[in-house]
């Protein structure tokens, strides 16, 4: 057991880099990486706080915060007096599928076009790295795109793309949805997840969407995978009066 714990901590410490950022967040990212790659299996006991403090040479407060937040997020399970374990992944029933917005608009007999507001090639921040399951300073694209239906803005798309998986993303025809087709070609989606919230758009977003500041909007946070690799992380903002979600399910 001691050898197993030592090996776990050795691998974990190798994933923590020297890039700027909170230490607790780096510990969280390293633990998630071990779980995502299958190094740490569901129901497996993880090293204790004391073992992590000693091996990683960080404060107990740092380790406690990392483990506490991962427990709150459902990544780990802490059993009083027993230890901390890797949680089993929960099964979810999809309320709706990931659709191409251009196809949705076309199905209504309307015209779609998009405008690329900005695209940059950069190094991932701590938050972006955690959302894409990569290291900080990993090469990513950041893009802001406005989608139109019959010349009326219907959605702002903020997208972060793993540049290693889609190296020519910034060379695509964003106006005619070429970027979507390019991603489906080089890294076809095998899995996706959504988080849907009601929000108010920022003043800049209201200007882009041509709406009043008081109009409620629908925000979708979406991540997509190609097999075991995260390809994109996107945040989509749409006016509530112009956009709706539909899902069909049976029991």
From TrEMBL:
Keywords recorded for this protein, A-Z: DNA-binding, Histidine metabolism, Repressor, Transcription, Transcription regulation
Pathway: Amino-acid degradation; L-histidine degradation into L-glutamate [regulation]
Domain of life: Bacteria
Keyword DNA-binding: yes
Pfam family, one: UTRA
GO BP term, pick one: L-histidine metabolic process
Domain HTH gntR-type span(s) in chain numbering: 21-89
Single GO molecular function: DNA-binding transcription factor activity
Stored NCBIfam families: his_ut_repres (TIGR02018)
Cited function: Repressor which binds to the hutP region in the histidine utilization (hut) operon. It blocks the expression of all the hut genes in the absence of inducer.
Protein name in UniProt: Histidine utilization repressor
Protein source organism: Vibrio spartinae
């Amino acid at each position: 057991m001691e050898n197993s714990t030592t090996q776990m901590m050795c691998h974990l410490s190798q994933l923590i880099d020297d890039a700027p950022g909170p230490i607790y967040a780096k510990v969280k990212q390293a633990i998630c990486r071990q779980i995502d790659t299958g190094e740490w299996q569901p129901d497996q006991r993880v090293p204790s706080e004391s073992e992590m403090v000693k091996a990683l040479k960080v404060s107990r407060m740092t380790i406690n915060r990392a483990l506490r937040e991962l427990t709150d997020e459902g990544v780990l399970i802490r059993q009083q007096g027993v230890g901390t374990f890797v949680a089993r992944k929960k099964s979810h029933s999809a309320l709706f599928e990931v659709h191409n917005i251009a196809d949705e608009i076309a199905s209504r007999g309307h015209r779609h076009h998009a405008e690329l507001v900005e695209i940059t090639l950069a190094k991932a921040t701590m938050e972006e790295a955690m959302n894409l399951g990569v290291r900080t300073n990993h090469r990513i694209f950041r893009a802001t795109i406005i989608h139109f239906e019959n010349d009326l803005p219907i959605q702002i798309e903020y997208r972060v793309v793993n540049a290693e998986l889609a190296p020519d993303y910034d060379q695509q025809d964003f106006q005619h949805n070429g970027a979507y087709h390019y991603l489906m070609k080089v890294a076809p989606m095998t899995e996706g997840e959504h988080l849907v919230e009601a929000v108010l758009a920022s003043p800049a977003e209201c200007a882009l969407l041509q709406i009043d500041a008081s109009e409620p909007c629908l925000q979708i946070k979406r991540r997509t995978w190609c097999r075991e690799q995260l390809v994109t992380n996107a945040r989509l903002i749409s006016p509530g009066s112009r956009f709706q979600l539909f899902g069909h399910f049976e029991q």
